[in-house]
Amino acid sequence: MNNPHPASTVAAKLMMAKRVLLLTHQRPDGDALGSTFGMREFLRGNGIAAEVLIPGPIPHRYEALCKDYLSRVFPGELAGFDLFCALDCANAARLGSGEEFSADDIRGRNFICIDHHGGNSLDADDSWIDDRCGSTCQMVMELISYLNQPINPDGATFLLTGMMTDTGCFCFSNTNGNVLRSAALAADYGADVEKIANHVFFSKPLKQLKFEADLVENALRIECSGQFAYACITGEMLAKYDFDLHEDEGLIDILRSLEGVTIAMLVHRRPDGWRVSLRSKDSNYPVRPVAVKFGGGGHAMAAGCTIDLPEFSDVEAVILPEIQKLLTVNIK
């Protein structure tokens, strides 16, 4: 007897639902927004009422793509949904539900999860987790293919957006044949590649370019014989350029793109500590173990953690030895 498709349970629940609330992680990126809005278009195209909840601001680069969503859902309104679907969210602490309700309030109420993060701990009632996929948008595209149902061009555009952003426009090591086949299917359904390129990749405000130049000129530090580049974003820099950290997606790639650099790190202060983002451009040097050591997680090549220490110099003191060890032990 053939094994069922790993998406079969969540697919069945989606197609049997009448009204679905789609959620993703806080501070949504291209994959989070692409998968939720893409899923919304797919469900609506199949006669299923679906709403996206984004309680915080949407990054400027995605504003022209992502419209007409809910910013708040109160506890008394939860009964109006017969299915809750979290996409691209690895744990309950990061679920973008706002202050009105939490993951605990929807567990046991037909709560499903679709995600490509290893170590997912959201503990939904049913989940489809596959860390071999380059993005959650790829998983949604595969689900659509499994169901043999179409999606409209707007939905395909959303899904291709997440596939492109999470793979660095198909340049990162998480790009494989399945990724490209899913992207091709989105294109076949009418995804607007030009629209994605112009809004997401080729449309930066001037103040952001100035901020990035200042970051490289004045905050960049290089260690480990040029293999480790990192920078700390200060409050003064944010104020000087009126820069919103919700726009920081892709910022670390400026550091990663430096010649000779293998691992990049970007750090900024948050109320709960220093947020540390780590990226690697060589699969021989995965950064997820470093993030996990400090209570974080993520993907092998893109991970992060929060470190509650007084000063940035304290963060340097604990992170730098781990990076030095990684680059030494994992020599090819």
Protein model, in words:
The protein is α/β, with parallel strands linked by helices and 332 residues long. It has two domains: 8-201, inorganic pyrophosphatase (n-terminal core) (Alpha-Beta Complex); 206-329, Roll (Diaminopimelate Epimerase, Chain A, domain 1), CATH 3.10.310. It contains twelve helices and eleven strands. It has helices at 8-16, 30-45, 103-106, 136-147, 153-166, 177-188, 193-201, 206-219, 235-241, 252-256, 288-293, 312-329, and strands spanning 19-23, 49-52, 83-87, 111-115, 126-129, 221-223, 228-233, 263-270, 273-280, 297-298, 302-307. The strands form two sheets. Strands 6-7-8-9-11-10 form a six-stranded mixed β-sheet. It has a five-stranded parallel β-sheet with strand order 2-1-3-4-5. Strand 10 (297-298) and strand 11 form a beta hairpin. It is globular and about 55 Å long.
Key structural traits:
17% strand; single chain; alpha/beta; Diaminopimelate Epimerase, Chain A, domain 1; 332 residues; 5-stranded parallel sheet; inorganic pyrophosphatase (n-terminal core); 12 helices; 38% helix; 6-stranded mixed sheet
Order of helices and strands: HEHEEHEEHHHHHEEHHEEHEEH
Secondary structure tally, helices: 12
Largest sheet: 6 strands, mixed
The CATH architecture of the largest domain: Alpha-Beta Complex
CATH topology of the largest domain: inorganic pyrophosphatase (n-terminal core)
Which stretches are poorly predicted, pLDDT < 50 over at least 5 residues? none
For the record, the count of structural domains works out to: 2
CATH-wise, what's the superfamily of the largest domain?
Answer: inorganic pyrophosphatase (n-terminal core)
Query: What's the alpha carbon Rg, rounded to whole Å?
Result: 20 Å
Which term fits the overall shape?
globular
Q: Helical percent range?
A: 25-40%
Number of strands: 11
The separation of the N and C termini measures: 43 Å
